[in-house]
Design goal:
One of its GO terms (cellular component) is neuron projection. Its main location: membrane. One of its GO terms (molecular function) is guanylate cyclase activity. This is guanylate cyclase. This protein folds into two domains: about 230 residues, Transferase(Phosphotransferase) domain 1 (Transferase(Phosphotransferase), domain 1); about 160 residues, Nucleotide cyclase, GGDEF domain (Alpha-Beta Plaits, 2-Layer Sandwich). Strands 7, 8, 9, 10, 11 and 12 form a six-stranded mixed β-sheet that branches. α4 runs antiparallel to α8, α4 packs antiparallel against α11 and α15 packs antiparallel against α16. It contains 18 helices and twelve strands. The N terminus is likely disordered.
Length: about 550
């Protein structure tokens, strides 16, 4: 009577969530056999009849995935009786149900319920014939998350030995022993007709043999207990109001004089057919309770049970692996596309050989080119345009102009070095040497630019005319990558300086070339020139 003193159903749930019953009665039998045992104080010697011997032999021979192996019984020694079963390291189903740290979804519900049904099917079809004391703590969970039914077949001899005062069930040494032997709430899982017959049996001097209760009646008692456990698995609570005092409830149920029927507290979590199924399991008339076949069919239909929890996990892992493989392929394709775009962008910012060396983490040493042509361009009166237009309009203006320049460069052997504001710098003969073709490439681009600007109209003002000053110089240059975090390909040398000066001192709509460039063009004789004089001061 000390186990649930003045506790409501709700507070009992909290107490059970902090309790692990199996670990308390764990022992190692022999060399390396892990076992869980139930201990009963023994008052008198126990004598086995033929039925007891047959039952324990049948229990010992029971082999099924959902039946926990019975290892044996120790009796008539040290005034204690031990029932020994194989140990399952994940504890009891009660431990799982009331552990708030474990999230139980429909896969857990379906797998646990299916395992219990499978275990009951085996026991009901075996020579044992029934379970007899089905509770959440008689359902052990092994390492593979499979339910193993334990404590089957022992209800009849335990009750008889208790009536004969050979053992004590209620007067155990402490609450820890009571945890796995016979919890006070055990009566809640007993069918009403079984409780009523048990109380009558205790009042008789002559023992009423359990064999007079047909196997079918005891199997129907298992169905009642199964309905209780199924409710607990899905709702993680007992099928009684949370405000119900557990001590009063248990005493009223054990008395057997009045039937306190469990009820479903919330119908929303269950399909209507499953609600009817659970309620039928609790039917006061045993013969009206559903068969295991009907239970199994409904559970498989509405809980979508396919195999054990491990099987479902394996299917989930297989599906996850397939989805992951598909996702990897998609992401790999996206990565390849991103790499292509990044390489394309990088090739526009840096020469191909420079980008390749930088991607491989190699340093790019400076390089000297003996012959090249450098051009600078600058938009005339760009400052006035900025004053008369918005920032967005200026950006749009530069984009349309420079996109045209980029097209001219792409058609010829030239490379865009950089743009700064309205200034545009490009080169031919760098980074790939092309003999003396660089001078014709640069000059042809200059003519393309002038022709393009003659017909160009600003997007924001059709009356606005745009012209450029261009400056060209041919000669040797040095090229190098400057910067690590934001590397830039830069050109150095007198040729670059002279090209810049040619642009800054040139006339609008004209291309001013240095003498070195003219000497190369004279050999081609395809261009017309006019001569001006510039100071050598820079």
């Amino acid at each position: 009577d000390k186990y649930y003193p003045q506790l409501s159903i709700g507070s009992t749930r909290t107490k059970m969530s902090n309790t692990n019953y199996t670990s308390r009665n764990h022992a190692i039998v022999g060399t390396n056999t892990h076992a869980v045992y139930h201990r009963y104080p023994q008052r008198r010697p126990i004598l086995f009849n033929r039925a007891d011997k047959n039952m324990f032999q049948q229990m010992k021979a029971a082999v099924h995935d959902n039946a926990n192996p019975f290892l044996g019984i120790s009796f008539n020694e040290k005034e204690e009786v031990f029932l020994i079963w194989k140990f399952c390291n994940r504890g009891t189903l009660q431990d799982i149900i009331y552990n708030d740290q474990i999230a139980m979804d429909t896969k857990f519900h379906g797998a646990f319920i299916k395992d219990i049904i499978s275990g009951l099917e085996y026991l009901h079809a075996s020579p044992i014939g029934y379970h007899g004391s089905l509770t959440p703590w008689s359902c052990l969970i092994d390492r593979n998350w499979m339910v193993k039914l334990t404590d089957y077949g022992v209800a009849e001899p335990i009750e008889r030995w208790e009536k004969q005062q050979s053992i004590s069930v209620d007067d155990l040494k402490n609450d820890e022993d009571k945890g796995n032997a016979k919890q006070k709430t055990s009566a809640l899982y007993d069918a009403p007709e079984m409780l009523k017959m048990r109380e009558k049996n205790k009042s008789r001097r002559v023992d009423q043999d359990w064999q007079r209760q047909t196997i079918l009646r005891r199997q129907l008692g298992d169905i009642y207990a199964f309905g209780m456990i199924m409710y607990e698995i899905i709702y993680r609570a007992l099928p009684f109001p949370d405000s119900q005092d557990i001590t009063e409830l248990v005493e009223a149920v054990k008395d057997g004089s009045r039937v306190i029927k469990p009820s479903i507290q919330d119908h929303k979590l269950l399909h209507t057919d499953l609600v009817s199924l659970v309620q039928d399991c609790w039917h006061a008339t045993p013969e009206m309770r559903p068969s295991l076949r009907r239970i199994k069919l409904n559970v498989e239909t509405y809980l979508k049970v396919k195999g054990s929890l491990v099987d479902q996990m394996m299917r989930m892992m297989e599906q996850y692996a397939n989805n992951l493989e598909k996702l990897v392929q998609e992401r790999t394709g996206m990565l390849e596309d991103a790499n292509i775009r990044a390489d394309k962008l990088l090739s526009q910012l840096l020469p191909a050989y420079v980008a390749r060396e930088l991607k491989e983490g190699k340093p790019v040493p400076p390089k000297t080119f003996s012959s090249s042509s450098v051009m600078f361009s600058d938009i005339v009166a760009f400052g006035d345009m900025c004053r008369d237009a918005s920032a967005a309009e200026i950006v749009n203006l530069l984009n349309t102009i420079f996109n045209g320049f980029d097209e001219f460069i792409a058609r010829r052997e030239a490379y865009k070095v950089e743009t700064i504001g309205d200034a545009y710098m490009f080169v031919s003969g760098v980074p790939e040497e092309n003999g003396f073709r660089h001078v014709t490439s640069i000059c042809s681009i200059a003519l393309d630019i002038h022709n393009f600007l003659l017909e160009y109209r600003a997007p924001h003002s059709s009356s606005l005319r745009v012209s450029c000053r261009l400056g060209v110089c041919s000669g040797p240059v040095a090229a190098a990558v400057v910067g690590l975090n934001a590397p830039r390909y830069c050109l150095f040398g007198d040729t670059v300086n002279m090209a810049s000066r040619m642009e800054s001192t040139g006339a609008p709509g004209k291309t001013q070339i240095a003498e070195s460039t003219k000497k190369m063009l004279d050999q081609i004789q395809s261009y017309q020139f006019s001569e001006i004089f510039l100071s050598n001061e820079f």
